[in-house]
Specification:
2 helices; mainly alpha; single chain
């Protein structure tokens, strides 16, 4: 039971790394003005 906080921290770290990868890939791909219109229409 003592390993539970470490596992939660590890999962939180993996989520942060995944967010970093998605954000950096979107930054490198560039911004498409049509995607903003699509997001606004949803």
């Amino acid at each position: 039971m003592t390993a539970m906080p470490e596992m939660v921290a590890l999962f939180n770290g993996f989520g942060g790394i995944a967010s970093l990868l998605v954000g950096s890939s979107e930054y490198l791909v560039g911004f498409d003005p049509n995607s903003a219109l699509l997001i606004a229409s949803i």
